[in-house]
Each structure stands twice: as C-alpha cells, then as structure tokens.
Amino acid sequence: MAGAAAGAVLGGPGGAGVGATTALAATVLTEYALRLHSSRSAAGDAAREAGGVLPVPAGQHTVRGRDQIIKAVDGHAKAPDGRFHVLTGLGGVGKTAIAIEVARRARGRGQPVWWVAASDPGEAGRAMLDLAQHLGASRAEIEQIHTGERSGPDLVWRLLESRRGWMLVFDNLDEPDALGREGRPVADARGWVRPSESGLVLITSRRTDRAVWGTAAAQHHLDILEREAAVRVLHDISGVATGGADAGRLAARLGDLPLALHLAGAYLADRFTDVATFGDYLSVFDRRFGELMKAPAEASPDDPRQAITTTWEISLDSLELRGLRWSRKLLRLLSRYAPTIPIPFSLLLPEILEAEGLLPAGPDPAGRLTDGLRALHSLGLVRCHGTPIEALEVHPLVADTQRHHDQPEGVSLRLAVRLLDDPRAHNPSAPADWPYWRSVTPHISALLPQTVQDRTVFDLMIGITNTAVWGLLHGGDFRAAELMGRALAELADGRAIEGQPDLLVARHGLGMALLRGGRPMEARAELLDLLATARRTIGEDERTTLDVRHSLANISRQRGDFEAAERELNAVLDAQVRLLPTGDLSISHTRQSLGHVLTDRGELERAQEVCRTVLEERRAVLGDDHPWTLSSRHEHAKLLHRREDLPRASREYDTIVATGAEVLGAEHPSTLDWRHARALVLRDLGRRAEAVAECRAVFETRARRLGDDHPSTLSVLRSLRAMT
Fold first, then answer.
1. pTM as predicted
2. Which sign, positive or negative, has the C-alpha torsion 276, 282, 283, 284?
3. What share of the chain is helix, strand, coil (3-state, %, to 5)?
C-alpha cells in the first residue's frame, strides 16, 4: 500500500499531526488483549468499550464424560483453595470445553469471568495490562510498567486480590514460562500466573510436566474419554440414534478423542453426505486412514492426532464428491489467519478467490463461497457466525495441521496476505472502515511472522500493517496502534530493514500513537530517531520526512515553544508548496497547524484568515462532515470563542458535536475534545449547570478510555474543578 494513501490529520484541541499512509507480531493486541470469544454481539461491543472484558465462549453441546472434573474445578470457582488450576492434555481432548462450562456456571452465579487467549504469550501479558486498566489501574501506573519502574504482574495481582469471587482463564497456554517474571519459570508463581484465595485461576495447556507448573498448581490431566461417554458424544452430535455397537467401534478407531468425535459426528449429521450410519463411516475411515499412513507423516499410527487428521480428510473428501473440490484449499487459506479468532467474512473477497483459482469460475462467486463455508461449518471444520455469515473461526489444531499441507509451498499464505491488501475501500481515515481495521488486527498479527522469510510478501505485509496502524490511530485506538507499530518496527529491525517507505510511515504512526496516547516525550524521541532514519534513507525532500518534521513541530507547540514551532512549520510548508501538487491536502494540514500556533500566540486576525482558507479547501474537497473538515470547523469555533462571539461559537459547537458523534462515535477522542470545548463556551455564556454536566460526562469517559492521568483527562478535570 502506498504510504500516501494512509495520510491523515489527527485533529482536536491538542493540535494536529500528519501521516501519509520476541516482539514480532506478538505485541499486537487481539481485540485489545482480553480476547474473549463471542465478541460480535452488541453486548460484547459495549463491554469492550467499557474495559475490554467480553463474554466467555459459548459451548454448543453438552460436555460428556467430564462430570467429575467439571464439578471439582467449579467447586474451586465457588471456594478458591489458594492454588491455580491447570487442565492439561493433548490438543483436541476438550480442555477448552471444560473451561467454558466452568466459566458458564460461574457467570450464572454472577461471578466476573475474564478470559485471556494465551496462545501468544506477548499478547497475554498485554491482555493482563488491559485487565489492570479495567480493574482501575491509573494511566500513570500503566506507564510506569512500560518504563520499567513498576512490575506489571504485581500491579495486576494487587488489584485482583482486592476483589473476591472472580474467575480468570488463560486458554491455550502452551509456553507457560513466557508468562513468568523476568525470565523466571511460571512455577515461581511471581509472574502473570499466580495462585489465589480470592478467585479461581484456570489454565488450559498441552504442557503436562508437573515440574513446569510447580507446587502452587493443581494439575488436572485429561485423557481420552471413556468409551461410553465417547459413544454419547457421537450420538449427540450426529443425531443418529441407532447403531450403538458400531458407534463403539468408531469411537475406538477415533481414539475416543473429543475433537475427532465431534468431526465424525458433524459429518454424519450433514444432510449432504451419503454416509448415514456409524458402520458406513467406520468403513470410510479405515480406507482413508490407510491411504494417509502410506504418506510421510510426523504422527505414528497410534497417535490419536492421526485420527483427527483422518476425520477431517474424510470430511474434505466428501465435499469434493459434492462438487466443492476447492473446499480443501479454502480451509488451508483460512488456517493462515489467527485461530479461534473471528475472521470477517468481508475479508474473503470472492472475485480475488476466483481470480486466484481457489473458487471455480462461474456466476455468483459470493454464493459459491458462502456454500463452501456453510459446508465446512456443517462438518465441524470451521465455525460460522451469523445469517448471512458475518465471521468464522478455525480450531487451532485444524489450523496448525492445514498450514503444514500448503502445497505448493506458500500458496495459501500469499493469498491470505493479498486478501488483506484490498485496494478498494479500506481507508484508514474513513470512519466507516475503522471497524474493519479493528477486526483484522489479530490476523495481521498472525500473518506477520509467517511472511518474514519471503521479502516480497513481507514488504506487502509492511504496507498492510502500516495502513492498519493509521486506521487504528484515526479510530481513536491509540494503544492498539502503538503496539502494532512497535511490533512491525521490531520485526523489521530484526531483518535489518529500515528505509522501506511504508515502514517509515508506520513508524510515524507509532510516534503519533504515543503522542495521542499522552506520552509526548516518548513520541518526540521516537520521531527524532525516525527523522534521522528518513533523512539518511529517503532524503530531506520526501513527503514522509516532511510529515515527521510537521509532527515534531506540533510537539514543540504543545511544549509552549511557539517560535520554534512556527519556524519549522513555515519551512515544511515552503517545501510542500515547492514539491507537492497544488491542492495536496498535506499543505492544508500544515497551514492548519500554523493557525494553531497563531491562535496560541494571540494573533487572532491572522489565525482567522488561515482558518478560513483551510476550512474552505476542506469543505470543497472533502465535504462538511469529513473528520478533517470537522477539525477545521472546531478551529473556527475556537476562534469565535476567543473573540467572545459566544452565541455563534455555541451554535457551531452544537453542530460539530452532533456531527462528530454520528460520524466518529460519541466516545471518539475528537468528539470528546469538541464536547470539552463546548462546555467552556457554555460556562462563559453563564450556563454553568450545563457546562458542569458536560465536563463531568467528558471526564468520566476519558478516564475510562484513556486513564486518569492522560493529559486530556487532566485537562477536563482542571476545567471541572474551576467550575465547581
């Protein structure tokens, strides 16, 4: 993606900034870190806005054969015993299903439940920081963790231990020592995972070694199901009521493994398959198992995981017989994205899939794609959400295995990346596209480390990640933008890449995320380093170099050095007028920043002239309701306020706030900035009660979203105290 395509202004009273378009991808938050499933509901969205805590996954079937362990673990949710509890066993044995059932029961009793997707340890650590903020940690405390002045685990656990009756789940924690403290093993119980008498800590993991978990852990090892329970699972899912003896033989061949049983049952339940009985399925299984074992494979014939591979190969064979020959390729494509995390249906562009040969040519490619996904869903290979389909998920074990079958090497990887590089509509500055960037963030995170060995594909991923950084930034998700930008920068640094154009723009986004996140000194250091790199690698007169200089000038202005800010902005403006096409929006961005400086210096006549020019340009090019136009209208209203034309300022802010709430969202940082400015006008109009109510509402929202110690939160707090 071209860097210029990501260009944007981040407006508001604090000033404007311009952008043109292991840490690895693990540093990127998944749904802002507390990746709790079933997040597609309105309730889930509201919960995420309130602090990132989403509902636990919803189970679809009764959990069979695990009554004793569910009862035991649920008992510890009711009365914690001072240990953390670990469900261990091989993949597909049903660990997560048990955790879901216990969490469901705890929630039914009114206990708070937090669910952390721990397959990526870096992500899990940052999830815990989000939990700390949800539990009341201040912005200053979080920043002290980032600077090394405070221990993250100690802060989280101080907050957790101040409450009682909660449940915290770490799902798929297969690298437990990565969540230890300062390189120490998790068994020390001083890191993110600790025992507690205040609530239940429950872990699911494939790591079965007791020494890994230490004496503070109570380990519950899950083996395969008892035969009777395995048969009941087959009957439950397939809907086949007869054939008990054959069901027992099939369960034995499937190793009594819950995931394999589920896949076989789903196959039999599918109305399009021609296998209707357990005996028929057993015959197909024996034939297909023999074929698979003739090929080189890591698993031995006695490995239960081989049974899982056989069951889904049977399912894929059946889809081929139904004319869905491409379903196997589709599953391998989906497996490239983050497992267990919803993949937006809108990401799967039918015309690209058809052009790449994944979908056969013909009419209605979208309909054929939907048919294929529904077929994979009916056989239990993916899980679709919504009617029509809105999103889908892939089981981690299915995803891991399918990635190893990508032949020729990398075909599905390249296609997965290409689908993210949609050239059509995903504009980082367009509010309508912000939900898209939020939804694909975890999948970009999953793809980044897969692409590092192929420089061509990695360069494409750099462009995609760059645009995602700016999409998150414009959407007001400063922390997520920071983490993604930092992840990309560190990954590129490990590959000795520094001058790639999109990488430079992404680093600019990182600096702006730090600035808008209330950390101007860190932002300045990042941008100064970036400026030196840009000058060395692309030169002084390139757009990105000028954009970074612009942002640094804005920081000078915020620090009160108006003379330095004006001098640098004028230099940038001169270069832009000389180098860029007439009417380029970057020129108007710089002019608006100059207007900010003039306003701050009290040169209101000159500021008014600049503001009028920029506003007219933006209205003509972008329209009245574009975020950048709204930013200019705010500057106009602010000048009306400074010139004591209070009635006009009030009317203008009423319009700006209403439009901002509709276009950006009621809690977007810019909307809150404009509400704060309106409150100050109301105060000066003598409408004190309205002003106080508005300031209080803005303060509460900013404190919740940005933290008590964010500069914007403190600013409105000062206004509130002055009024009361």
1. 0.72
2. positive
3. 60, 5, 30
